[in-house]
Amino acid sequence: MDDTTTTITPLGGDVYEIDTRMAGYSGITAGYLILGDRPCLVEPGTSGSAPVVEAALRELGVGADDLATVVVTHIHLDHAGGVGDIARMYPRAEVVVHEKGARHLADPSRLMRSARMVYGDSLDTLFGELKPTDAARIRAVEETGTIDLGGGRRLESHHSPGHAKHHVGLMDSQTGDLYVGDAAGVYIPETADVRPATPPPDFDLDTTLASLGKFRALGPQRLLFAHYGPVTEVEDTLERSAEELRVWVDHVKDARDQGLDLDHAVAMVVERTRDRYAVSRPDVDPEIAAKYEVLSSAESNVAGIMHALDRHA
């Protein structure tokens, strides 16, 4: 498989899932192309994924001047790291992001410094460099916003903080698809597990649960996870997402009350939650669990919850 080999999955309704092959992994981060009068790319993925995404769009008949819009659910590098590259490849595309993230796409220097502190040398392998996007091409949305997909079809953005303060969910008026980003956690299609995604510094339990309630109230027909793929069991999945968040927060509270440091807290939480996930069973390929640990590690989740508990204390 070369660097730009594409995996495209038609999902119906002129929606195509693109495996962005983050850091060379398959089935870890998805972008989505909505084809129509005004083609729209949701979640371009990392900078390293940009050639893969460009090859997929070419295969789907979308040329350099054809892409109308690029939308990100939030500015974490696994979702938005490729925005600058994609903006250069598609010079007519408008870039849509929540207002709290817009300045970081125009000037990524502060975001990249923070990411470098967290990831060190592995940053380049995992994500690459987020390049600046001309501020004139960025449209910031607030509590709600609308993206014109052409033919009367639209994508409606809904501010959904909790995972990140600059997070939005995106609802397709025609299909009822809801692009959930990371607000509902990580879905593992191989085992149908739902795991939390609670990294520092923005995670907040009550805010996240409120966003999940907002998603439920929208009445989506299908959830489209960036990690990873479509889910039609909407109610059950959103409920499971909320339940897992509560379980992890309760266990981290226990660890904090016991005065455990981060390493010991992570070990305790992993041990207590292992049986909740089919991906942990001995008959499941351990590589599946390993690739999701790269993406959304137990250490990152526990650190984010610890940070939130300290903030409230």
From TrEMBL:
<dbReference type="Pfam" id="PF00753">
    <property type="entry name" value="Lactamase_B"/>
</dbReference>
<dbReference type="InterPro" id="IPR050855">
    <property type="entry name" value="NDM-1-like"/>
</dbReference>
<dbReference type="InterPro" id="IPR036866">
    <property type="entry name" value="RibonucZ/Hydroxyglut_hydro"/>
</dbReference>
<dbReference type="InterPro" id="IPR001279">
    <property type="entry name" value="Metallo-B-lactamas"/>
</dbReference>
<protein>
    <submittedName>
        <fullName>MBL fold metallo-hydrolase</fullName>
    </submittedName>
</protein>
<dbReference type="InterPro" id="IPR037482">
    <property type="entry name" value="ST1585_MBL-fold"/>
</dbReference>
<feature type="domain" description="Metallo-beta-lactamase">
    <location>
        <begin position="28"/>
        <end position="227"/>
    </location>
</feature>
